[in-house]
Every structure is written in structure tokens, then in C-alpha cells.
UniProtKB/TrEMBL annotation, chains A, B:
SUPFAM superfamilies: Homeodomain-like, Tetracyclin repressor-like, C-terminal domain. This is TetR/AcrR family transcriptional regulator C-terminal domain-containing protein. InterPro entries: Homeodomain-like_sf, HTH-type_TetR-like_transc_reg, HTH_TetR, Repressor_TetR_C, Tet_transcr_reg_TetR-rel_C_sf. It comes from Streptomyces violaceorubidus. Residues 48-67 bind DNA. Residues 25-85 form the HTH tetR-type domain. Keywords: DNA-binding, Transcription, Transcription regulation.
Length: 234, 234
DNA sequence: AGCGCACTACGTACGCTGTACGTAACTAGG
DNA sequence: CCTAGTTACGTACAGCGTACGTAGTGCGCT
């Protein structure tokens, strides 16, 4: 009954197949792909054990043979999409390579908008995550600094990307569960914010709003944040 | 039936008391305080509508007269603890003031470990959040830059603090729902990680681990991240 | 060769969640 | 005074993660 043992374990330390018993009907990759498909199409909250089992075509509780806890399903999902990271030969300019890494991660998160939400709570070092981390360190070979600093740089870049894409996506993802449209939601919030700012209680905030003409250039904000972070390390 | 209208609205735009009907038994502050008490003591997941109502001593569905959706309860909670921010007279050195802001936010999050988890998805501009934002802008008065840049600085500092404290807290918060201890969890994960690193597949990661003697100095990591971000703006 | 055990599969059931809805009591405005 | 808008709250529903029991399957060992 190893599958039911209430024992701390990392899913990646569990062999996918032990040899004994009937051969499993699905692979971890199958399960991860099904979950990712659901999350991409209907949002992370649509990913339930029942729903994934349904997508696979098996009974709900059969899933628990592969995935002891739901959190492990999340780790499977993250590892699966981490595998989409393209790992290139570093060009020798660590700054350029880190910018490329950041852009790629951002694209990945745009493709899988549920990623930022999972990044924070789950600090798993899945196989593909380790590969990605190693690649980042390879990009930083020309950066003369102790590994501690390099790790902090990687963490910082990842953190900034996660935060920014998370903010970009927040509204979209949130309105998925609401009975009204994203435009209505935004309109209401902006109207309220405008009223508050117009009240005169927040002069600098008001000035800030007055200064801003048109919508925010998210792309530019991201780019600037990135270069500033890298500047801070150089 | 305004309380039941399925209409987009911000909770802060709803008057707390309209005049008609029996006078409400609780204030928003009461409700927020109850929810915060639960979250502080037992974690965010312990905050359910039933639980909060129980803490207040009323029926579950009575809560919905005050809080149309659970997400609004979260906004109430965030606003309540945002009120704990001390707002001082800026000292004239925006760098020093921003560092002080960051430290205070960090302390706040240590006191209320569920805050980082709520920060990302909820982008509410509650009264106390606006006050806090205005205060940050006041601290940045000596920083000669357009308001757009100042806002990006504030967002960046807040983002970094949220990310770092979130990471600090992740393990602690996560093990709350697990049947085994945080130490066991960590031991298992470290053992797995050590095995992977020792496999030779990740040479730089291995070097990085070899370099690190003893546990990570989280305090130092935070401090360095902060100064680097500020450096990137100056 | 065959026994036993570890494994897969899966239905049922429990306690929990957010919340829609109906009803009764109450009170301020017209 | 009346009535409309509120508060209060019990009941109910659909969904969740998952503990547990049971039946069938096939590898590894003796």
C-alpha cells in the first residue's frame, strides 16, 4: 500500500512503475498533459481530481494511484510546462542571456496563465525545473560572482517575471469565475478609483493619474523592471 | 435586495449602513478582525464563511448581508491589516524612506503570514491601501522622476517584499495542512535534491551547493535584493 | 510452476466548501 | 401608519479532496 502511505515524499522520488501488478493505463506525462489542457482552457480552478480523471477516462480514485495528493498534480503540471523552456548555448553576454530567459519565461506564462499562481506556493525542484536552473547558471558563467549571488540573481529575475505577468493576468483570470464581464469589472473599479482620487485625499495619486495619458504600456513596464534589476547586479 | 444583486461592485463603494431595516449587529471592522484573527491563528484556509460567522456568533448566511462574496471578505482583511502601516513624516532621503517602508511591509507580512498569498490575486485599492500608496509617493517626493517611474518603483519594492516573504513563509504555511511536520518535509525534499545534485547532471548547481556553507541568511538576501532594486532606479 | 503480494482500478461515503433561495422580523422614509 | 428595503438565518445544492474497502491482475521469488 505504498500508494496510500501517509509519509512525506516527493513525487519525483517515486518510481513511475515498480514492476508489480497490472501495467498502469497512463503515464505521468498523460496525466500532466490532461491537467494542463484543462487549466489552459478553463483556468486552474477547473482542474479537479474528478475533472482530470474524467478527461483521462478513468475513475476519480484511480488518479490517486499516480498522484498521492492534489498538490503533486500541480507539481506534475509545472514540470510539464517547464519542459517547454528552450535551452540554448549561452552567447557569452550574461545580461543578454538573462533577458532572453526572462522573455521566454514570460511567454511561457502567457501560454499557461495559471503558472504564476502555482509558482509561489510550490517550491518544487522538479526535473525540468532543475534543468532550467542549471541553464540559467550556465548563462551566468561569464558573470564573475560567487554562486550565491548568481542564485539570487536568478531568483530575482524569476520573481520579477512572475510578479509582473501575475499582475497582467490577474484581472483576466479572476473574472473567469465572475458572472459579469472583465470590462464591467474594470469599469466599476476605475470609476470607484476615480471618485476616491477626485476626493482630494490623495493629491500625489491624483497627480499621478493626471500625468498618465492613456493606458499603461505593460510591455515597457516589464522591460524597464528587467533592465533595472540587472543594473542592480552589475 | 441590494445585498443580493449580481452586479459588479466594489465593496468600498457600498455604504456600510443605509438607514433602512434593523441596525446591523456587526461592523465591517468586526468582521475583518474576526477573519484576521482566524487567519493569523490557523492559516488562510481556515477562513471560511461558516468559520467567520461562528467566530462572530451569527448564522452563516447572515455574513452575506455584509460581504456579498468571499473575495470581498479577503479585501476587508487586507484593508484591515493595511491599517497597521505606520505612516511617518518623510525624512527627505527617499532611499532611506523606501527601505523603511519595505521593512515595515515585511514585518506586517510576518505578523500576518497569509498576506503574500492574497496580495497577488486581489488588486484592490482599499482605503488603507490608497493611504499607504500616497505615503509611498510622499516618501518619493525628493526623487526626481515622473510619477510613472515612482509608481513603478513602489510596485517593484512591494513586489520584491511580497516575493521574498512569500518564499520565507511558503514551507511553514504549506505544512499546516500536511499530516507530517515541516522538518520531515524539508528533510525529504533536501534528501531528494541532494541525490539529484549528486547525480552529476547539474554541475553548476552542485558547485553552488558545495559553495554554500550552512543555512541561507534570509535576512541578508532580503537586504541585498532591496538595495539592488533601489540601485537599479538611481 | 505456482504462490503471494504489491499493485491497479474504482464505487461509496464523509466532511467540508461557497452560496442561491425562501421566509420571518424589523425599522426608517413617505 | 404603511410599506419597502433591510437584517437574520435555516435549508439545500453542487462541488471539492480524499479515506477506505474490495476486486482483479501479473511480477518476483521460492
Amino acid at each position: 500500500m505504498a500508494g496510500r502511505a501517509a509519509v512525506p515524499e516527493v513525487i519525483w522520488a517515486r518510481p513511475e512503475r515498480t514492476g508489480r501488478g497490472p501495467r498502469p493505463a497512463y503515464t505521468r506525462a498523460d496525466i500532466a498533459a490532461a491537467a494542463v489542457r484543462i487549466a489552459d482552457a478553463e483556468g486552474l480552478d477547473a482542474v479537479s481530481m474528478r475533472r482530470v480523471a474524467g478527461e483521462l477516462g478513468c475513475g476519480t480514485m484511480s488518479l490517486y494511484n499516480y498522484v498521492p495528493r492534489k498538490e503533486d498534480l500541480y507539481e506534475l503540471m509545472m514540470d510539464a510546462v517547464s519542459g517547454e523552456h528552450e535551452l540554448w548555448e549561452p552567447c557569452g553576454d550574461w545580461r543578454a542571456d538573462m533577458i532572453r530567459v526572462a522573455h521566454q519565461t514570460r511567454d511561457l506564462m502567457h501560454r499557461h496563465t495559471w503558472l504564476p499562481r502555482l509558482m509561489s506556493p510550490v517550491y518544487g525542484f522538479s526535473p525540468n525545473a532543475l534543468r532550467y536552473l542549471e541553464h540559467c547558471l550556465a548563462c551566468l558563467d561569464p558573470f564573475e560572482a560567487p554562486y550565491g549571488t548568481k542564485m539570487e540573481l536568478v531568483a530575482m529575475v524569476n520573481g520579477v517575471v512572475t510578479t509582473y505577468v501575475g499582475n497582467e493576468i490577474a484581472t483576466v483570470e479572476r473574472t473567469r469565475s465572475l458572472p459579469w464581464s472583465q470590462e464591467q469589472e474594470n469599469a466599476v473599479r476605475i470609476a470607484y478609483l476615480g471618485r476616491q482620487v477626485a476626493s482630494g485625499a490623495y493629491p500625489r495619486l491624483a497627480a499621478s493619474f493626471a500625468e498618465a495619458a492613456g493606458p499603461i504600456d505593460l510591455e515597457g513596464v516589464f522591460e524597464r523592471a528587467l533592465t533595472r534589476v540587472l543594473d542592480g547586479f552589475a
